[in-house]
Amino acid sequence: MRCLLDLTGESHSEESLYQQITFPLAPPDRPYVFLNMVSTLDGKITLGEVGDTASGLGSPMDQKLMKRLQGNAQGVLIGASTLRAGHITYPPSLWRAVVTTSGNVPADARFFTESPGKAVVFTTEQMPEPQRRSLQEVAHVVVCGAGKVNLSQALYFLRQHLGVERLLCEGGGELNFEMFAAGLIDEWFLTLAPKVKGGRHIPTTVEGTGMPREQAVRMQLLSVYEHEGELYLRYRRRA
Ligand SMILES: NC(=O)c1ccc[n+]([C@@H]2O[C@H](COP(=O)([O-])OP(=O)(O)OC[C@H]3O[C@@H](n4cnc5c(N)ncnc54)[C@H](OP(=O)(O)O)[C@@H]3O)[C@@H](O)[C@H]2O)c1
Predict the structure, then answer these.
(1) In Å, what is the CA distance from 18 to each residue of 48, 198, 199, 202?
(2) Which domains are present in the chain?
(3) pLDDT digits (tens, 9 = 90+) for 84-123
(4) Whether residue 31 has its Cβ less than 6 Å from ligand 1
């Protein structure tokens, strides 16, 4: 692995990169939030079809870094489509939260079952009753809003009730947009895999309705590492 740039004042090797990150303090009303995603050079977040996992996109090194980033968090947040895509598993100590209006997520997924008491479902008043009852068996179901989940409220819950000070967001693109639009992403760890996928219907790292030109989120580059043509980028939101 090569360090191409590191403005954090540190210089890491393959063994130490993202092993123990010192983040700025969290604001009082929510955790400090860092996003981690891997994409192709053209920004796609799966090599498969819509709804497939991200399997095969990042290298074994990217997988390793993903686990290390999880190790820096006390909780992780994902969108329902990412959970529906499957193969989601986390270290037992990690709070795991999913955002959904439909409640259409599999209650028997390892996300819920592998660490009893550690799962949270953030939803709205619109979640149908059967889904609510089934998810209440395996998770804390928290209503935050009427139409869409109010993500600021959800993050307040994680901080105040569960003591989460560092939250890892793991996508997908729809949730990422909502988080960026609400000003809730502090840092972005982005792996650029040297692959091209194409396909206008395939989700990219940030989807949603898009921001107006003047509200595009400005990020500043903190570090760049390279391994076998794959880039590991770390950005922080500009103040
Ligand atoms: N390459 C990577 O690093 C990476 C990372 C993560 C995911 N992925 C891939 O990305 C794809 C999924 O991404 P995606 O953009 O399609 O979807 P997503 O962001 O994972 O999930 C979207 C869903 O989350 C729920 N949601 C999001 N924001 C909400 C809000 N404010 N209030 C209520 N519900 C909200 C809704 O669920 P309901 O429809 O249930 O209401 C919505 O349909 C999968 O293929 C997955 O494998 C790749």
Answers:
(1) 28, 30, 32, 29
(2) 1-6+36-45+57-73+167-198+218-239 (no CATH), 76-165 (3.40.430.10)
(3) 998 789 999 999 999 999 999 999 999 999 999 999 999 9
(4) no
